[in-house]
Amino acid sequence: MKPFLTIISSAAPILAAGVALATASGAMAQSPGKTVVTFAASHFAEVGRGDRLKAWVETFNKANPDIEVKPVTIPFSSFATTIFTQMGGNGGPDIVRFDLPEFYAAVAAKSVLPIDDIVKDGEHNFTSADKYMKIDGKRYGFAFDTANYAMVYNAALLPGGTPPKTFEEFVNLAKAATKDGNYGYAYRATMAERGGFWYDLTNFVYGFGGRWSKPDGTPTFNSPEVVAGVAAYKTVYDAGMTPKGTDAATYRRMFWEGKVAMEIDNGGVATILTSQGKAHPISAAPSPFPHKEQGMILAPVTINANTKVKEAAGKFLRWSLQPQQQQELQTLLGAANVAITVERTPEELAAMPWLKVYDAQTPNSVPALPQGLETKAPEIQQVVVQQVLKVLQGGVAPQAAMDEAQRQITSRVLAQK
Question: pTM score, two decimals?
């Protein structure tokens, strides 16, 4: 269980959702004559999208009368704790849609199964995100959904109405748009939003050519490219063009109210801005950095190692990867991409023309986790954000701060067994 504890920051009681969750060992007894497969995803708890996802699952059930896939509804806030508690008790849902940090923790703990016998290489036109679904040469899942990052902007607030193409243009435009109670840009810069801060910072680091680590796990937190990304983050902070201290919920609301000109965010947020801010239509453009790479939110679907119904679970997963099912899944998820390459429908592009920009970013998207150090990500994130806050608020030079981050991560975090 140690890898789980690196993701779950504190012990939590078994919640009611967890108690109600069907265990893998008892699943078959619930519906006589059918093999029952339980499927847990935080999406099922979402208003609107959850019901559409359940209806998508039901199309499989209707076509396969010998199997019943039962959605398990757990809110996002308690999802990981509930699932890990169930798994630790030799139970849990048969199929789990994890966020990427929990996926790596579950693989490290041998709590999910390799599925190379279910999903074979060469059978599907996977997106580039699929390369992150193999660990030590074995496939443990495939991408249920991914969200790319790009710049969203309100053209009405930008001088000339066009987005910046370079970082220098970006800073100048954001400064010019900061007036009359409006701001040119918004991002996170407080420890209270450490997780979101990490994603925002990662986009700057990747955009300046940096990576948190090498593929073999060698830390590179003080490399010239990472330091350049941190320095750019400070440039924005010092420029007086952001609503300092506001959380993401606040500045996103400000954006759809027409008070923020630009932000770099994922496609899921762009969908929210579109639905909430109809009076202030959004546009999208690539992030204005020297390099195209940006972060990615990647959520794999996996099979619980405790399952007693692997064959039936595998049949559902194979069904879900067929082009028609992937098309339907991508449409109901909104701005997300799915496991295989799926063309947008004319209706989708008419309603959300900015989707083209997000979809075009797929080949350039990289998970925000430090490669090779995924199970250490929470502790690493804490150290890095602390040091970057010293840059922003304490006058520490970016190189000195990241040298200290490298030292602490190497001597404290990576030295732990």
Answer: 0.89
